Amino acid sequence: MTGHPAPSGPCVVVAGGGTAGHIEPALALADAVMRLRPDARVVALGTERGLESKIVPARGYPLELIPPVPMPRKPTLDLLKLPLNVRGAVKQTREILERVGADVVVGFGGYVALPAYLAARGRVPIVVHEANAKAGLANKVGAKFAEYVAAAVPDSGLADAQIIGIPLRQSITTLNRAALRDEARRFFGLDPHAPTLLVFGGSQGARSINEAVAPVAAEFARAGIGVLHAHGPKNALAVQQVPGAPAYVPVPYLERMDLAYAAADAVLCRSGAMTVAEVSAVGLPAVFVPLPHGNGEQALNAGPVVSAGGGLLVPDEELTPEKVASLVVPLMADRGRLAAMSQATLGTGRREADEILAHAVLEVIKK
After folding, report:
1. Residue 183 banded pLDDT, cuts 50, 70, 90
2. 275 annotated ligand-binding residue
3. What domains does the chain contain, in order, with CATH numbers?
4. Which of 6, 61, 263, 348 is deepest in the core (most CB within 10 A)?
5. d(CA 253, CA 203)
6. Is 301 annotated as a binding residue?
């Protein structure tokens, strides 16, 4: 047989699909593995309908598709179909693990991780990372037969987890906001000197945030505050601009999150685990508006930053234009308070989780 010699390095399979909260830590780990072992191969597992079908190839990693196994939160008919769905997905995943020569499976939770854990069980070593304050079903299952379990915060519900934070992209962990600030403001067309608020609600935007912040555009303008507002690709935003005042800049999506963070003096955002970790790592004061659905983990994610004095928490149902005008506008105008909050939030951030997890993964392979 002729052909290319097989790569000599280890093959790491990462399983984290669906939302950016599962995909980004998986790719940050992938990058860290490649820095430590340039001869390694990293293969991502995902489904056609998750964000990974766009994000993973754009970051230069091969993506192997498996059927999604959605985790019903409540007892429904889908629960009865689950064993059959899982069996099909596990069989396909097992074939992929054999074909790529997997040396380890690293799961980040969600509906891609469960078939990966079950396919790897007893065949390929497993590493689990839990980003949320409360572990989900997939990671609870995976942790039972994992060689190494890591979590972002204590008390996630996974016994004996190493607390390491969340693996983040180097473009975030090495970000020097002050040095990039002028370039970032030019990039978005923001006022170079005005205090600037960054508003976003996850990759799809958040309607309740949009409806509470956009009507306050004139108040922000009168107070001399600039706003960069990512409203989501499916939402439109009509904003009243005030001549001569700092701009209110609406954008559908933030491709360059590093520049968005560098342009901002504070953020108003959801409190997904990934968002909280990034905002803390770059030292931005935050007004967190937890997603009102799920098992309350978003409020828990924000807890440590709020307790440290680096953030404020506003329940979704309380976020109104009046609340934004009375709470956020004065906060943005108080540079002393923003500086103190920035120091507090930096104290809660962890920047080295990607390297810690990559070393652990390579150690598991060595064993």
Report:
1. very high
2. no
3. 11-168+351-366 (3.40.50.2000), 171-348 (3.40.50.2000)
4. 263
5. 7
6. no
